[in-house]
Amino acid sequence: MTPLPESIARSWQMAALSRELKSQPLARTVADTSLVLFRDEAGGAVALIDRCPHRNYPLSEGRLVDGTVQCPYHGWRFGADGACVDVPGCTLDGDERQRLAARPVEAREIHGAVLVRLQPGGPELPDLGPWGAADHDHFWWSQGVWRGRALDALENVLDPFHTNFIHDGIIRRSNRRIPVRLSVETGEDWIESIIEQPRPDMGWMSRMLEPPRDRSRTRLYSPTLVQARWEGPRGLTLCVTVFFTPVTPTTLAPFACFTTPKGRGPGWLKERAIRFFLEKVVAQDRHALARQLDNIERFGAPRFLQGPGDLLGARVAQLYQGQKIEPAREGPFDFEL
Ligand code: FES
Ligand SMILES: [Fe+2]
């Protein structure tokens, strides 16, 4: 399988939920790189390459001592900047601390997400609007590690036409379609698909759960961050921000944060309802991505055609690879979904 593009290592990728950083070191793989995550004494999120520089033992199998991670093999300890702060049984002078250091990785924490950037110099996070805003309810839903290519997951989430089939009856229906108007907007490093429709989707989830809808917008920010918004006559009804973290070339870890305006019931109830209704949808997409990859592997390589509804064409792949695209506005085009 083709290796992950460098854009992944150069951008902020979500490695864990804040609440996963507890009293033990946490092992995570991001962009094919094994990391150990923990909190330093001040509570800041730390990421180091998960390899003890001494004899290559996984640091994540060690323990935390006063905000440092201790390797289980000989007990060396490493702080937030990777510097070695203790070699049990020996005296460490100042210069030795850097020579014996573990490799640190840039880490930051925002709105309950622990993000890492393996290589410096990539883009900063875009403005993600209501994500994390105090006047909204938010909850995280992390999805574990899926078998599938991150690029295919991005195409999936931006592609409405699969919802009539894979999610037949839940989101839309394969045998009862409604007319929609589809437009595309792009900036240099993002692409957005906008769907305007006169009626809610025909699936039972939309009909039971959703307030009136005017349009939905799904935007991909290069390389792997997606934000989808549903808007009704009174403004935003739901916003989902998803970090599609490539774990290896054939696995990914989706982390989704659901944001709703306060009101319309308590936050915990909305969380329960959304999880209940979406559980099946998520499982269907997860299954589809795995089957798609099985077959790509069986045939040796992907070979994709762009159909008449694939308005985004090759641009999702270009953004995934960190390439700039031409700013544009296209549509609206008439389809039935
Ligand atoms: S291998 Fe980690 S301290 Fe020796
Ligand atoms: Fe889907």
From TrEMBL:
Pfam families: Rieske (PF00355), VanA_C (PF19112). CDD domains: Rieske_RO_Alpha_N. It comes from the Bacteria. The keyword Oxidoreductase applies. InterPro entries: Cholesterol_7-desaturase (IPR050584), Rieske_2Fe-2S (IPR017941), Rieske_2Fe-2S_sf (IPR036922), VanA_C_cat (IPR044043). Gene3D superfamilies: Naphthalene 1,2-dioxygenase Alpha Subunit, Chain A, domain 1, Rieske [2Fe-2S] iron-sulphur domain. Keywords: 2Fe-2S, Iron, Iron-sulfur, Metal-binding, Oxidoreductase. Residues 12-116 form the Rieske domain. This is Rieske 2Fe-2S domain-containing protein.
